[in-house]
Write a structure and sequence with these properties.
alpha/beta, cell shape, cell wall biogenesis/degradation, nucleotide-binding, Mur_ligase_C_dom_sf, UDP-N-acetylmuramate--L-alanine ligase, six-stranded mixed sheet, Protein-Tyrosine Phosphatase, Chain A
């Protein structure tokens, strides 16, 4: 089978293309510009074009016809490549249908990591631990990893570990052997207009799973018949961050349902040596970290972890998506930011917006935050000067957001 991936540098599409390659399919694709994921894929031998006009798709299709065109959820209906694929009679779909087919064709058991927060870290952690314990594993993680590719197919594996996102109702296309639920807090208002619809989707996901591992506080969302509930973090886990220790506790429980000869000591050693994943409290330089978090609960958890490492924490925060800000504005409280000594607040990164909603300003979003620790900023030379000054004085600088902030920080570091 020959597959074309449009948006191949995306955090979900990229790993899937690598899995398809490893599973024996002929793969190529395109994206708007290079990034860490496309670098990784090109190194693996995948041909990628950064011209999405349709010319590359047409020329490659002439050489050997494509059987399937996979695209990101963000691809507009009138995108030149999507329009051309339909004209050429190529089957088109989003990523979930292909992944479900690969899992079924290879007779793999799915371990799905789902939840509002912590999916990437928990998925990465389970992959890391299984590899350390010599358990063959196929997987897909929505981020770059320091210890392995973002996605991989292992022909010796019984299990497929998947970061199963609720956005666009993606997770409802799967029937997992084990589902691990990290948390359930209302999010993605562009997909779920009400909290009730969000919780109903998680309930439906649980119904499609053979086993569901979940925290006691989220258990009422699911059917008690297939639930395994946990109530507190394992005290033998020593990695930084309360939320990371809770995520690791979920991994301990998951491993009870995976055949392994490893003893408890080996399991704890593997978990406590976890090196982390890209964009999740990722160290970019001395005293400088990048994190994808953009929900108040994620912000509070990551700041708590930063506080374990330093008593002087500077937060640089870029809100993500105006439609989401309308939903969470009242959650931006002094308590959420209590572990930050200083806050540099950027304008909201705009994507997939409702044109009828007014753009909330930084001043509106920070109405409940201590003004003495607050600065309004932009991604410019002045902000970079403030960041480097804080770094050099020994303060921990944490840059958070799912928009352009991470790329901008890396660009500034490359210049220095």
């Amino acid at each position: 089978m020959r597959i074309y991936f449009s948006g191949i540098g995306g955090v979900a599409i990229g790993p899937l293309s690598r899995i398809a390659l490893d599973a024996g399919y002929d793969v190529c694709g395109s994206d708007k510009s290079p990034n860490l994921i496309t670098d990784e894929l090109e190194a693996a031998g995948i041909s990628i074009s950064f011209d999405q006009s349709g010319e590359y798709l047409r020329s490659e299709h002439k050489k050997v016809p494509f059987d399937w065109f996979i695209h990101t959820a963000a691809l507009p209906n009138n995108h030149p490549e999507l329009v051309l694929a339909r004209e050429l009679g190529i089957k088109t779909s989003k990523r979930d249908e292909l992944l479900a087919q690969i899992i079924a064709n290879k007779n793999l058991k799915l371990i799905a990591i789902a939840g509002t927060h912590g999916k990437t870290t928990t998925t990465s952690m389970l992959v890391w631990v299984m590899q350390q314990l010599q358990i063959p594993v196929s997987y897909s993680v929505g981020s770059t990893l320091s210890f392995a590719p973002s996605g991989e197919f292992n022909e010796n594996s019984q299990f497929f570990v998947y970061e199963c996102d609720e956005f666009d109702r993606n997770f409802l296309h799967f029937s997992p052997e084990i589902s691990v639920i990290t948390s359930v807090d209302y999010d993605h208002p562009d997909t779920y207009p009400t909290e009730k619809s969000y919780l109903e989707a998680f309930h439906e996901f649980g119904e499609k799973s053979k086993k569901v591992i979940v925290w006691q506080e989220n258990s009422t969302t699911f059917n008690p018949k297939n639930l395994i509930t946990l109530s507190g973090a394992d005290q033998n886990i020593t990695i930084p961050g309360k939320h990371n220790r809770k995520n690791a506790t979920l991994i301990i429980e998951t491993l009870k349902h995976i055949p392994t000869s490893a003893n408890k000591s080996e399991i704890y050693q593997a978990i406590n040596s976890f090196p982390g994943s890209g964009r999740r409290f990722e160290k970019l330089a001395d005293n400088l970290y990048s994190d994808y978090g953009h929900h108040p609960i994620e912000i509070r958890a990551t700041l708590q972890m930063a506080r374990e490492l330093s008593d002087q924490v500077v937060l640089v925060y870029q809100p993500h998506q105006n439609v989401r800000q309308h939903e969470i504005i009242d959650q931006y409280s002094a308590d959420i930011f209590r572990d930050a000594n200083e806050i540099y607040w950027l304008p909201t990164y705009l994507t997939r917006e409702n044109p009828d909603l007014p753009i909330l300003t930084p001043q509106q979003l920070t109405k409940n935050i201590d003004p003495e620790k607050l600065h309004f900023a932009n991604l410019d030379d002045n902000l970079w000067q403030n960041i480097t000054t804080a770094q050099k004085s020994g303060k921990l600088v944490l840059c958070m957001g799912a928009g352009t902030i991470d790329g901008w920080i890396r660009e500034q570091l490359a210049k220095d």
